[in-house]
């Protein structure tokens, strides 16, 4: 996925016309995804299709133009100068790129979203064309496929600013660290944000559709996003240079201690247990080194005339390399040695010849094996609890790689041989899928992912895999929505993922000027990791993050002001301003609401009734908390605190109102949440009572 050079303003919403070039499977899915935004869609197709994969698709188009999208006359006919974005999604990368050049010449401002897998070329085009983003639709859902096959608590993962973010689904068990010890809102921290909480009898809801002050109990299902912080690196970076230098020398001294050296030697020796040849080489090297030291000392102390330490060292090396005749082959001897040292010299040559020869043989073997590398046998097929990946094309290989990164046993099935250097540690079965399935220990497999490039093969093999292992997980990759729906009905327990439907949501989101950095599946919805830059007349400008989160139904996971360091899991109290950067988790419906400024997924239907401030300082602190969390002016907050009891007139979202009450409670101010509907205290949410 290629990041665009700059971002188009959402304030240009008066341009409500979008052009799609290519109405194959991906193009039709893009039409459906874009139409959810309520925009005008024009499409160009070279040949009129005989039938539509999506039956009512013609009704979703405002205009269908038949012709070559690379021709300027056809683009002019589509009124490209009035188009806010152009989606180039034909099956030919060449056609897409040629059309991108033509479109840019006719409209210097329109946004170009191109289907292309040529990363280097896309980088260059992004620089030269501007307002350009590219995707490879078959690669976008790879993470979704891998996580579906993995069947673990991890629902999604992506990288932001070098940090890995994980979306986790966790069912609370008795004895869990949070069970009966925490309220739901207390799970939020600097590195974690709760997005869903459902009791044992409930179904997981959308973002923020949960009760903040509900206790976490056994059987509850939590969905949260967290940052996998590298604490060691973080602490090292935060340390001063003096402390880092001190720690460096401490590690050196600690590493030279006998206990540490002994442990390292034991670990190294155990690592060579599988190769006796390596152990022989190590023993030979140690013996040669010891003889070298002993010989140097003896020749230096017992020779006549006296020779230097360097000459004694050279003499020992010559003898170890079989040079006995070079030193003692001529008479009379130039060196006068005791008889026992003369005998030692002969033994040194014999022993050196043996052990140095072993080292030479090992070195020769290594050189030859690296020069004439034969195919190493792949690991054996796992016996149980493994994932079977059927189809090792680009998608299958990437899925297998991700599964291996998760330390998940996996075996790949392919009907064409792959290079031995490709995933060398992956067990691979080559041959017809019918016979290969029998060799893959399918009945004991954890799950099966069918990810070939042929839909019919995927359906056939998927049904065979289900018959062989009806209780295991099954994930089937498809490209047409019709087949996906039929398969989902036939195999209700399987996960049938339409690759183009998943990718189309990313294309549609990118068409509105947002940077889609990743996607994953959650509660049968596609969640887009979306990056925003705030413009002066943006629908998000001057809003609190609380209003963005609860009003539009998104989850802010990163906030950055200017060139400052980015903040993960930012506070709800931050007010967005021009130039700010924000990354959120959102569905395509949420993006549509942001695009049009339509808030109200959960209306502001709560107020805060402030009853009493227990101290003079509480009046000051309470006013600051009210202004900070509600977004009202500080003067309004001060007026409220001076005339207690009173009710804050600014309506709030429930999460926002409850958080304000908790903060007021910390400041020694009595307050409670009341609904706007009837202002009835009987249904109010009251915090724990304060002591006077």
Which descriptors would you attach to this protein?
23 helices; Helix Hairpins; extended; alpha/beta; Alpha-Beta Plaits; Rossmann fold; 692 residues; disordered C terminus; six-stranded parallel β-sheet; 20% strand
Strand content: 15-25%
The CATH superfamily of one domain is NAD(P)-binding Rossmann-like Domain
Class of one domain in CATH? Alpha Beta
Mean pLDDT: 80
Number of helices, where a helix is a run of at least 4 consecutive DSSP H or I residues: 23
Shape: extended
Per DSSP E runs of 2 or more residues, the count of β-strands stands at 24
DSSP helix fraction: 40-55%
**CATH architecture type of one domain:** 3-Layer(aba) Sandwich
The description of the largest β-sheet is: 6 strands, parallel
Rounded radius of gyration (Å): 35 Å
Structural class: alpha/beta
What is the CATH topology descriptor of one domain?
Rossmann fold
User: How far is it from the N-terminal to the C-terminal residue, by CA?
Assistant: 59 Å
Question: What does this 3D model show about the protein?
Answer:
This protein is α/β, with parallel strands linked by helices. Among the domains are: 10-136, Rossmann fold (3-Layer(aba) Sandwich); 160-229, Regulator of K+ conductance, C-terminal domain (Alpha-Beta Plaits, 2-Layer Sandwich); 276-371, Helix Hairpins (Orthogonal Bundle); 387-493, 3-Layer(aba) Sandwich (Rossmann fold), CATH 3.40.50.720; 606-683, 2-Layer Sandwich (Ribosomal Protein L30, Chain: A). The chain is built from 23 helices and 24 strands. A six-stranded parallel sheet has the order 3-2-1-4-5-6, with helices on both faces. The protein has a six-stranded parallel sheet with strand order 13-12-11-14-15-16, with helices on both faces. Residues 1-14, 230-240 and 679-692 have low confidence and may be disordered. Keywords: Ion channel, Ion transport, Membrane, Transmembrane, Transmembrane helix, Transport. InterPro entries: NAD(P)-bd_dom_sf, RCK_N, Trk_Ktr_HKT_K-transport.
